[in-house]
Amino acid sequence: MIVVVDYGVGNIASVLNMLKRVGAKAKASNSREDIEQADKLILPGVGAFDAGMQTLRSSGLIEVLNEQVLNKHKPVMGVCLGSQMLGNGSEEGNEPGLGWIDMDIVRFEKRDGRKVPHMGWNEVNPQLQHSILTGIDKESRFYFVHSYYMLPRHAENTLLTANYDQQFTAAVVKDNIFGFQFHPEKSHKFGMQLFKNFVELI
């Protein structure tokens, strides 16, 4: 069972629909018991960093998430804001992140000809070999909507990069923890492949 953590912020219906399409058994829940019993977890999120962290903190779920992810090494996928919340903090606000991956969240600089937020389809470039990237190559395209991006402090945490007038980290990994800045639930066949790979992770 995959549990999509329902803390009140996120594109939960679309994530569940995509998981259903790849044959996964999944549900959304804010129950501590469901999180403890899940095989894998997905942390969604849309909106501002501080609001997301405040809402997650007020849900009372951070303790059980830390236990399941850090101590029991349960696979977890952060999506969009959910991926940024895996880090230390964001230039967007003052709230501390979960701190599961040593990275900062920084804003795209406004430059001539580059609009912020970055919105639309972008190809990604794998930086590591990993089973979660099965069938994902440099011609795979995903849908992005974001003004801030992940900046890992250690190169081994960068799973995918993309380019928006500069190379930036589009996905991160650390052991059982994965973060995807783009929206796989809105990325058609490429997103389906990514969710399928996550479902099949051992």
From TrEMBL:
<dbReference type="GO" id="GO:0000105">
    <property type="term" value="P:L-histidine biosynthetic process"/>
</dbReference>
<keyword id="KW-0368">Histidine biosynthesis</keyword>
<protein>
    <recommendedName>
        <fullName>Imidazole glycerol phosphate synthase subunit HisH</fullName>
        <ecNumber>4.3.2.10</ecNumber>
        <ecNumber>3.5.1.2</ecNumber>
    </recommendedName>
</protein>
<feature type="active site" description="Nucleophile">
    <location>
        <position position="80"/>
    </location>
</feature>
<dbReference type="GO" id="GO:0016829">
    <property type="term" value="F:lyase activity"/>
</dbReference>
<keyword id="KW-0328">Glycosyltransferase</keyword>
<comment type="function">
    <text>IGPS catalyzes the conversion of PRFAR and glutamine to IGP, AICAR and glutamate. The HisH subunit catalyzes the hydrolysis of glutamine to glutamate and ammonia as part of the synthesis of IGP and AICAR. The resulting ammonia molecule is channeled to the active site of HisF.</text>
</comment>
<dbReference type="InterPro" id="IPR029062">
    <property type="entry name" value="Class_I_gatase-like"/>
</dbReference>
<keyword id="KW-0456">Lyase</keyword>
<comment type="pathway">
    <text>Amino-acid biosynthesis; L-histidine biosynthesis; L-histidine from 5-phospho-alpha-D-ribose 1-diphosphate: step 5/9.</text>
</comment>
<feature type="active site">
    <location>
        <position position="185"/>
    </location>
</feature>
<dbReference type="InterPro" id="IPR017926">
    <property type="entry name" value="GATASE"/>
</dbReference>
<dbReference type="GO" id="GO:0005737">
    <property type="term" value="C:cytoplasm"/>
</dbReference>
<feature type="active site">
    <location>
        <position position="183"/>
    </location>
</feature>
<feature type="domain" description="Glutamine amidotransferase">
    <location>
        <begin position="3"/>
        <end position="199"/>
    </location>
</feature>
<keyword id="KW-0378">Hydrolase</keyword>
<keyword id="KW-0963">Cytoplasm</keyword>
<dbReference type="GO" id="GO:0000107">
    <property type="term" value="F:imidazoleglycerol-phosphate synthase activity"/>
</dbReference>
<dbReference type="InterPro" id="IPR010139">
    <property type="entry name" value="Imidazole-glycPsynth_HisH"/>
</dbReference>
<keyword id="KW-0028">Amino-acid biosynthesis</keyword>
<dbReference type="Pfam" id="PF00117">
    <property type="entry name" value="GATase"/>
</dbReference>
<keyword id="KW-0808">Transferase</keyword>
<comment type="subunit">
    <text>Heterodimer of HisH and HisF.</text>
</comment>
<keyword id="KW-0315">Glutamine amidotransferase</keyword>
<dbReference type="GO" id="GO:0004359">
    <property type="term" value="F:glutaminase activity"/>
</dbReference>
